[in-house]
Recover the amino acids of this structure.
């Protein structure tokens, strides 16, 4: 019996060793590609974006809102004051149970208007549309609850401009963010979607919906998330965008060609509506052999509130992993399918075997390690595997922090930078294992997962 277990563990360790070798080689390629792409972005950041302002296309900003009374007024104020020649802000109240709607109507003195709707995509009943003569570029839509995807579809139906920008109600975007995120649409006619970079607002100084100063938060759980976001956006997404194989446009801040969204049927009621829409766009355009580009603008910045409790973070990560599973399984026919180019042969396999199944493989590795130690025959391969996992995890984080410092430098203090490097080391212990466990747990009740709003407890930005 002991020999059989030992053989099983040895065989598993050989497989997982090969897996980590391949994954880490891919990480290195992503880092190299991201480095080259970020150098190009730095030149863009240092350019005068105001030169493009007279050539911009009008944008409809859509803000889906459900129980967002704490932040919605500041959010709207900041959006109305963005540096952009022509835009409209459409806030969609998705049947909130709090004072979200009443606060908006009262603060901005809005009244109900008659509007002939162009229902290009399905959404739940729209109960009313509100605006005012004093503020014609602000529209509030009140509708029957249907979830975030349904609220976004309602906003698209009400919108009047060719580009639609989806922004979460708990987010603040920088004053020039729209001028930056719209650039790929001006540069390439075939651009159908562009994602902005999302950063952690916790701990930052924000007043009346405007970022005054970026600061590192006090809680460890929030600092860990800063490192994670750097890694996700400044290495992973930058690298995939360079290959036109980016699978996620963040729901927090993304700009789309409206006709492209309508062509694929709008947002679907699913757990991860942002990724699913991006996947559906890839599938539609490649299947019909239509030239297109899905890009990422790392200089277009959005600041979002992150969970500041373990309970909130656990809920978010389980929901995110369910969304990942849902999107990949719905579009599994693209996996290893040459007809879908780099999406089918590179990004789909990566997200399926690394992002989706990686936590399961890592969790099995921990279990096997414990069994090996208990039975007294620890394989050398296991030592190499965990050394690789931790060292490359640290390298990936260090690279992301380094990329941040040579490019956008939102955190300038030496103490803050050293703290980020320190937390990228500490992340490998306990925090990493917790997030692995939560993502594994997402598989257990995947089918029972709710496909409605996933929220954290909001605070006003002034409260931090």
């Amino acid at each position: 019996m002991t020999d059989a277990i030992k053989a099983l563990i040895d065989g598993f360790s050989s497989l997982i060793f090969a897996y980590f070798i391949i994954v880490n080689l891919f990480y290195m390629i992503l880092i190299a590609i991201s480095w080259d792409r970020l150098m190009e972005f730095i030149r863009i950041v240092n350019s005068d974006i105001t030169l493009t302002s007279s050539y911009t296309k009008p944008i409809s900003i859509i803000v889906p809102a459900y129980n967002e009374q704490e932040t919605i007024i500041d959010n709207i104020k900041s959006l109305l004051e963005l540096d952009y020649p022509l835009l409209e802000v459409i806030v969609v109240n998705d049947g909130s149970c709090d004072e979200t709607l009443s606060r908006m109507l009262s603060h901005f003195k809005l009244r109900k208007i008659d509007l002939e709707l162009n229902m290009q995509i399905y959404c739940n009943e729209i109960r009313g549309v509100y605006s005012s003569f004093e503020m014609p570029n602000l529209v509030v839509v009140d509708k029957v609850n249907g979830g975030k995807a349904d609220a976004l579809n309602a906003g698209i139906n009400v919108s009047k401009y060719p580009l639609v920008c989806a922004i979460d109600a708990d987010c603040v975007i920088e004053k020039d963010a729209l001028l930056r995120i719209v650039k790929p649409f001006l540069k390439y006619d075939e651009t159908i979607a562009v994602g902005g970079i999302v950063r952690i607002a916790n701990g930052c100084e924000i007043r009346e919906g405007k970022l005054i100063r970026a600061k590192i938060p006090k809680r460890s759980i929030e600092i860990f998330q800063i490192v994670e976001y750097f890694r996700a956006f400044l290495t992973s997404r930058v690298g995939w965008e360079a290959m036109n194989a980016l699978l996620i446009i963040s729901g927090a801040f993304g700009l789309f060609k409206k006709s492209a969204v309508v062509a694929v049927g709008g947002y679907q009621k699913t757990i991860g509506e942002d990724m699913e829409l991006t996947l559906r766009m890839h599938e539609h355009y490649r299947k019909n052999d239509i030239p297109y580009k899905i890009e990422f603008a790392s200089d277009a910045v959005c600041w979002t509130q992150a969970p500041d409790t373990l309970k909130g973070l656990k809920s978010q990560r389980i929901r995110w992993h369910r969304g990942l599973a849902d999107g990949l399984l719905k579009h599994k026919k693209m996996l290893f399918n040459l007809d879908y180019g780099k999406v089918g042969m590179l990004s789909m396999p990566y997200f399926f075997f690394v992002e989706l199944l990686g936590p399961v493989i890592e969790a099995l590795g921990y279990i096997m390690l414990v069994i090996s130690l208990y039975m007294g025959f620890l394989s050398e391969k296991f030592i190499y595997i965990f050394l690789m996992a931790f060292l490359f995890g640290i390298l990936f984080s260090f690279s992301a922090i380094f990329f941040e410092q040579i490019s956008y430098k939102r955190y300038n203090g030496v103490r803050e930078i050293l703290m980020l490097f320190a937390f990228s080391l500490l992340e490998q212990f306990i925090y990493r294992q917790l997030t692995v466990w939560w993502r594994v747990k997402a598989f257990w009740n995947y089918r029972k997962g709710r496909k409605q709003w996933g929220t954290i407890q909001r605070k006003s930005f002034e409260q931090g």
Remarks:
- The radius of gyration is 23 Å.
- Residues 1-47+185-194+214-249+280-295+306-464 form one domain.
- The longest helix spans residues 2-45.
- The chain has a mean pLDDT of 89.
